[in-house]
């Protein structure tokens, strides 16, 4: 089949450092003895635990009840006994309510779980209900509840679904391995999403440094003309939602708008694969593929891991640390979140565990801005990061907002390219949070 090519204006070319795991076969996590399952693993309202200490639970059983439309249920990733329902450390640096389960090693599946049927048997409403019940969220890292994306407002005219297989974040190869191992599921999940939102066209965007994944998807698509693969230029942040839409369709999401405003629904390839998995097996989202890598890891690997397994357990399975790490990051180096401890659990949105030595994690001291304009040239949203960041440092939140700080996608391209090593992205992130806080006070 023919593959189309696309990209966007701006962006950077950081060292990708994917070699240590790209050619290593996909592995599988060992069965955990204990899992810690947070009740907050998605954007939106946290869940309320519906089990208590001493309860026996099954694999796939609902243990957290959603609160509100922008929320999804949470399920047990093992069968066994609940040994605690209490606050535990979370990857966002906070402590949140969690259900702790001691596994019985049997993985006895909840007897109420059964396949939902075939694509032909399910209508759009049934698909959305399935997606909610399965607790499916965006697996690219944002964890936005998928059923919300599929619920198109009546005033929006959506005509296509785009799957994000770019995986432009350095070090990570989780989506790459997923597309190689489960290309058929990715394509089936796309077809299910297309039927749910009532469109006839689907696209899968993959960076052109993953030719094997592009070929695997092409074989899975076959002669289906309703789906096309876009071979995207290898550039960061090619997988960002707005940049992906621009590269594939040539459309621009308006300032403050959503993909639906450009006639598009975007989801990660992992999310699509999980939709297909849940439809055919009935199983909810209780595991995911992630990459554990970095120069502080002895044996970097990409593994399929249960939700609730500790970061330390995954690190141990990858041979442990080569030396005392300088930084452990949930996600990748550009948009990931640094961790204070490795007892935090793997969650639905954990795409990677990046462990860097002290030398690699060393951050140069920033100096004064030299007004070179490089941050402006690489910004994929066409902002002026140096101006927004300067207003942020002066606590002038209204000026930051006037310069469109809220449009920033926090990709970190500006900080990466800055010759003065200024922490532009961090300053803009602070400004965004303060702007949101002031808006809430105003309401």
Task: Please tell me about this protein's structure.
There is one protein chain. The radius of gyration is 21 Å and the shape is globular. The mean pLDDT is 95. Helix 5 crosses helix 6 (211-221), helix 5 (183-197) crosses helix 8 and helix 12 crosses helix 15 (424-442). Helix content is 29%, strand content 20%. The protein has helices at 19-22, 124-133, 146-150, 174-181, 183-197, 211-221, 241-249, 269-281, 311-317, 358-361, 374-378, 385-393, 397-402, 413-417, 424-442, and strands spanning 4-6, 27-28, 34-38, 48-49, 56-57, 62-65, 74-75, 80-89, 95-103, 160-164, 202-207, 227-232, 264-268, 287-293, 301-306, 325-330, 337-338, 352-357. It has a 6-stranded mixed sheet with strand order 2-15-14-18-16-17, with helices on both faces. Among the domains are: 4-23 and 114-281, NADH-ubiquinone oxidoreductase 51kDa subunit (Rossmann fold, 3-Layer(aba) Sandwich), CATH 3.40.50.11540; 374-442, no CATH class. With 443 residues, it is an alpha/beta fold.
């Amino acid at each position: 089949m023919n593959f189309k090519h696309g990209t966007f204006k701006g962006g950077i070319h950081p060292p990708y450092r994917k070699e240590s795991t790209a050619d290593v076969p996909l592995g599988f996590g060992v069965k955990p003895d204990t899992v810690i399952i947070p009740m907050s693993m998605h954007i939106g309202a946290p869940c309320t635990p519906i089990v208590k200490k001493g309860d026996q639970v099954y694999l796939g059983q609902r243990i957290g009840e959603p609160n509100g439309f922008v929320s999804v249920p949470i399920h047990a990733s093992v069968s066994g006994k609940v040994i605690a329902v209490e606050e535990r450390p979370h990857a966002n640096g906070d402590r949140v309510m969690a259900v702790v389960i001691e596994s019985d090693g049997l993985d006895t599946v909840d007897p109420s779980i059964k396949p939902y049927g075939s694509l032909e048997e399910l209508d759009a409403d049934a698909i959305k209900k399935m997606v909610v019940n399965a607790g499916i969220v965006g697996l690219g890292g944002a964890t936005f509840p998928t059923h919300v994306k599929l619920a198109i407002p009546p005033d929006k005219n959506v005509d296509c679904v785009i799957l994000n297989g770019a995986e432009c974040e350095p070090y990570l190869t989780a989506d790459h391995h997923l597309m190689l191992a489960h290309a058929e599921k990715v394509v089936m999940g796309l077809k299910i999403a297309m039927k749910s939102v009532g469109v006839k066209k689907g696209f899968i965007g993959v960076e052109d440094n993953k030719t094997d994944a592009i070929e695997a998807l092409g074989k899975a698509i076959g002669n289906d003309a309703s789906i096309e693969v876009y071979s995207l230029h290898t550039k960061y942040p090619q997988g960002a939602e707005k940049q992906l839409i621009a590269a594939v369709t040539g459309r621009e999401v308006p300032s403050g708008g959503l993909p639906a405003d450009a006639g598009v629904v975007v989801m990660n390839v992992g999310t699509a694969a999980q939709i297909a998995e849940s439809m055919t097996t009935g199983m909810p989202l209780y595991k995911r593929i992630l990459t554990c890598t970095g120069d502080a890891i002895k044996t970097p690997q990409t593994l399929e891991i249960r939700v609730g397994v500790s970061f330390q357990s995954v690190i141990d399975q990858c041979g442990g640390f080569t030396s005392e790490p300088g930084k452990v990051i949930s996600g990748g180096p550009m948009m990931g979140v640094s961790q204070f401890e490795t007892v935090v659990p793997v969650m639905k949105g954990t795409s990677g565990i990046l462990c860097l030595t002290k030398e690699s994690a060393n951050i140069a001291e920033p100096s004064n801005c030299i007004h070179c304009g490089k941050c402006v040239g690489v910004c994929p949203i066409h902002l002026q990061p140096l101006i927004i960041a300067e207003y942020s440092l002066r606590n002038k939140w209204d000026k930051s907002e006037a310069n469109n700080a809220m449009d920033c996608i926090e990709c970190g391209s500006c900080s990466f390219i800055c010759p003065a090593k200024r922490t532009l992205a961090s300053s803009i992130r602070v400004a965004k949070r303060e702007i949101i806080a002031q808006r809430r006070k105003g309401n």
